[in-house]
Description:
mainly beta; 46% strand; 44 strands; four-stranded antiparallel beta sheet
Amino acid sequence: MIGEIRGPGTPVVVPGETGTGILFHGEAVLLDTIALADGEIAELFRMDVAPHTGLVVPLAEGAAVTEPDASGLAHALRIVDADGVAGERIECADAAGAIATAVGVVVGCADGAVLAVGGDPAAGIAAVLLSGCAAPSGAADTDAADTDTDAAAAGDGPRVAIAYEGGVLVVDGETLEVIADLPSEEFVRLNPAGDDRHVVVTTSKGFQFLDMDAAELTDLVVPAEAAAHVVRHAGRTVLYDDATSDTTIFDTAELAEMDGTLPAAEVVPGVEAHHGVSVVLEDGTLVTTVGDATARTGIRATDAEGADIAANADCPGVHGEGAAKDEALVFGCENGVLVYDDGEITKLTSPDAYGRIGNAYASEDSPLVVMDYNDDPDAEGYLLSDIVLVDTEAKTLQKVALPDGVEYTWRGVVRGPSGDALMIGSDGRLHVIDPATGAVTASHDAIEAWEGPAEWQQPHPAIAVAGDVVYVTDAANREIVALDAAGGEEIARAGLPETPNEIAVVE
């Protein structure tokens, strides 16, 4: 080992005969390859750049450094000499991949390629755009992360989107290597679109689609003043805007085929704006929350033509939804649960005067739903120690206390492939919970013990599942771990360049 070259984030490395280019998160570095061969580390230049996913491509003299557009995607190449003096700028959308030729270095672009034949801006030796050429099929080897072209081409297997303060990481679901680091807003939320290709990123502008196959944030945005819940059910993806209570309904299969434009969507206008959620059933029935700026009170169901089917206003603070077997729906209240089943609404009452239920962990193959539970309106923080079990067929609700020392947040529970509930506890262990009894049937080491957040937006462990693999993030240690869902064995573990917050996985 010669030594270390340090920089923020996960580096993308492109080696060359005279130089080795490294792109960190916000820094571009060019090393002297000849000095490396002699056992020395010599930086020819280190310069600040806007954080983005790109390349530093070594040239005969200097390097070509990618520059991002306003959305953070590589959009051009800047020729920089060995002293760090910037020169010519060449347009190159989605610049990725580099191949050395006898003439120069070819960098792939979305609409062609750039042939870089020099690197001395003062001498006028720069690059030419080869329009209409295919982007290079090969790419330089990288250290710690592949270039975007290679990563996007891989495409097979699950991928995990991880939100952090200022962006989203795309991580390979098998190796846990970072494929892409995509700049975004300070706080974003993530939800699978349901099409096995996209993740919906909620931003201040609306619902933005992240293409997990290409590992890029697209320009496709459904405008919303207060983008909120995303629900996937019955072949539809439903978006809810809290600022208007409008419900936007997409055919999920059409989202998978998007190529530069959003498919047609049905928009059901809201009645009064509130923080809510909507679900569309197989027959077109729309079940949506009811409320206004002062309170959320219940749910209402209408048929495909908009005619009323049923309504219930006995659900203060209505929040969250879940779809169980045979399209039975559950909605949490501050005093129980509403169950919508075959055109009828049943109220199940909490065992405590204040018994808030706000999130549902449901399986469409089971009538049993696990939900979170809080019986203390004055509690500080967001750690919970009880759950409730709802049987949508028997119409029953049961409160269950977790074992001593096991607490969780709304972000820490999913349903596993066998139907059990999987919970990342504050003790750092992955707990397997029987949805029929609430009993913890197994516990597996996952991450270090952690403390709950003071505010719900703050980073803390999150959990997601894809097939037989469970993914858990460790915010305190900037890690992600993959575990076998059946036996709890660790499959992989990796460090992250940023502090993880929410996650979403696409198979």
